[in-house]
Amino acid sequence: MDPVLDIKQLTMDFGGLRALDHIDLDVKAGEIAALIGPNGAGKTTFFNCITGIYKPTQGDMFISPGGKNRIRINGLKPNQVTERGMARTFQNIRLFQNMTVLENVMMGRHCRMRAGIPGAVFRNKATREEEKRVVQESYEILEKIGLEQFVNEFAKNLPYGAQRRLEIARAMATEPFILLLDEPAAGMNNQETSELDQLVLKIREEEHISILLIEHDMKFVMSLSDRIFVMDYGKKIAQGTPQEIKSNPAVIRAYLGEDVDA
Amino acid sequence: MTALNEIKKSLLVSIWFMFLTFPIMVIKVNTVEQTISWRWNRLAAVGIGSFCLSFVWRYMLKRKETGAKKTALGNGGELSAVQRLLQNPRFFKPALLATAVFALIYPFYFSMYQVNIMTTALIYVILGLGLNIVVGLAGLLDLGYVAFYAVGAYSYALLHIHFGLGFWACLPIGAGLAMMFGIVLGFPVLRLRGDYLAIVTLGFGEIIRLILENWNAFSYGPSGIANIPRPGLFGMHLTIHQSLIYIYFIMVAIVVFTIFVVRRLQDSRIGRAWIALREDEVACQATGIDKTKTKLSAFALGATWAGMGGVVFAAKTTFINPASFTIWESVMILCIVVLGGMGSILGVILGALILMLLPEYMRAFSEYRMLLFAAALVVMMVFRPNGIISAVRRNYEFKGTNEKETA
Q1: pLDDT tier at B398 (50, 70, 90 boundaries)?
Q2: Which of A120, A132, A170 sits opposite B270 (nearest CB)?
Q3: Which member of A82, A132, A136 has the closest CB to residue B287?
Q4: 3-state SS of A137-154?
Q5: Whether residue B130 is found in the same domain as residue B47
Q6: How many Cβ pairs within 8 Å bridge chains A and B?
Q7: Are B276 and A107 inside 8 Å of each other by CB?
Q8: Which of A238, B126, B263, B307 could form a disulfide with B175 if both were Cys (CB 3.0 to 4.6 A apart)?
Q9: Do B139 and B41 lie in a common domain?
Q10: Residue A171, in any domain of the structure
């Protein structure tokens, strides 16, 4: 079985700056993988490259939904990447602030809906049923994520932790096989983080969605992930299980700096 | 204590104003007789006037702030009294009926002049509703909207001259051509947003106007095109009065059609995509929405209504020239949308009626029109930044029953 996400030799240059330097990374089906590294290591750039927001300079990116039908996703637009089943969240929350919580999730279902302009104007049976179905499905997703008490609130009025979860709900609504989470626990308190922990596990167990996440909270990363990739200055410096990473000298050096006496 | 403070601040403002206006308002030099007259009563007027204005302004701001604090605690949106009334079906239905009856009997009870200005106002209603799709829903600041209006008007005039086509044939053709121009403008500006988009659309509007002004062989230049026929009614001969009433009813029908379509569009998959695009472009794409399609459809649909409005405008005035399609028109339509309430259908309708009809009824103040207009805009932006009637749609949503089934 192919890995669901397979990145080979991904390189991204911004002018003379090499933000990503021949990165290899793969996520297997049903796996929770983490991408860690000091600030400015290129983690978010990596996400932006594979979701089509940036065009990588070099390298190949493949996805295989369900472990088969390997597709090359170089050059696809962000919405096409999402359509093919790779959904993401953002480091700085990017919700549709002036839409309700339910509408935010409904936007996620957009690419799974068909109704066009004529459908909207004539409101034929197919459109009406689709609309009804989407409201229903979106509400069910909110229930799974545990946001059902906020359905009619504006997204901007939600507490911070709930906004983060709503972003995940919106991404889930696109029916992904892999979910990319960019610092999902940033700014959360301990309780919110442990709730998020449960949520991520639940998504993996119940929805069978693979997860690749960027995170700085080491406790969160170590307890959750099956494998960890470590980046520094645009290069991948290590990969392995949490145990291996904890004792990897290169990782310790990247995080704590060189020992002067050595 | 705070009241005293406010008075003190307002006093300062009035002193400052008296000082500023002193040279022009108070001193009057008569160069012939070489005398200076001091008009102290004017100084007092400026002082008292600015004191009162400043005080009222401060008071309103205070009230707005405390009001905002209160509503921020409530859930979701803050509904104004008008919106609450409208959501009440016991009020809404009779109101709708009354409006319909009024619209139907209007031309028979009012003079030709009244019917005429009402028709113009209705044209601006559909222009406003069309621009509302682009600016209010999709959040694309379009300052060249009048270009599509011109396309509609000129397509009727030129198709009539060259091919003898009538109003009813030209209405869909004009709308279609404007839609195509909307797509033509849409393509190059796909990557732009905000100010950049505004500048490019502004340029586009001017290009269209300049082409019409200078390409004599095509558009008859600044002298325009005259003798455009009014719409026909099964070949019957209509007097001017009758055909004005006829155009009025055509406009009412188009307005009803527009409201119907725009309402449904807003509340659909594509309408939500427009709003999402306005809220956050990057997130919108990452959520799987095709940005290209969404933007182009907003431009195209917005332009369609401008094209229709243009055809009716040409038919109504029977004469068009490029002077009717200046940047000022675009600004006016944008003001209708912004003042009325971006994304709110009722707001835009009210905005169009107020902005188009008030100047007609207040001809006595026509010299101060721009001044009052500017003042109204400033006051609106400070106290009601969402417009006369802010958009309700994003708030109410189609819920209730669906959720209860699952719970």
Answers
A1: very low
A2: A120
A3: A82
A4: HHHHHHHHHCCHHHCCCE
A5: no
A6: 141
A7: yes
A8: B307
A9: no
A10: no
